[in-house]
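Appendix C reproduces, verbatim, an entry submitted by the partner laboratory led by Prof. M.T., so that reviewers can inspect both the input and the predicted structure.
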Amino acid sequence: MANFLTWVQTGLQEGLTIELHDVNHRGQVKAFVTVREVNSHTLYFLTLISVAEEHRLTESLKLHQLVFENTQEAIFITDKYFNIQHVNPAYTKVCGYTLNEMVGKKPSIHCENYTDVEKYTELFQAANSMGSATGIIKANHKEQSSFYQRLTLTVVFPEDDFSQIPLHYIGIFENIDEQVEKETLLHTLAEQDPLTTLYNRQGFELHFDELFQEAQREGENLALFFRFR
């Protein structure tokens, strides 16, 4: 309060942020003082403007920025045309590309082949339809090594806009190579003999069924040979 009184007496114009306290209210306000000389008397005109909401929004933005910069998941934000506007540090760590290298580019630039580009397109269309969609895509690191990523794509629409035209897209993904490797190993062990790598009964039945279904669709014959020793 002493600082506030000193400020008022000096008649400064730039404003001072203070905090009011009483039984029913607590909030920040910005105070402005105007000094006038009237009949040899100095008058101070004090204007108080609430900045509690402004302060709350500022703190909220700081918190969101803290999460964005420190989360372990890679994040990219695009405009409505799906051009990247921002990426977080985890994105650079996972993909090898910095923000300056990615601004204005499509996220699908990392796709390993055309099939994964198609998956990106399907994911994009699903997100537009449902608001959010998740899929697994194989991508390339800047150093040319490939990895699997589980990507969740979310559409952001403008507030109070019923046109449903996207404003931004937010992509969140992580490297799931270890998980894919484990699942592939379990799948292999379930279908193949670990010593000979030949198909076991389950593997044989699964692949034979696939071949049989394909032969039926194509109207072709299917022959099965047995070799006895």
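Residues 28 and 56 are 10 Å apart (CA to CA). Additional entries are available on request from the coordinating office.
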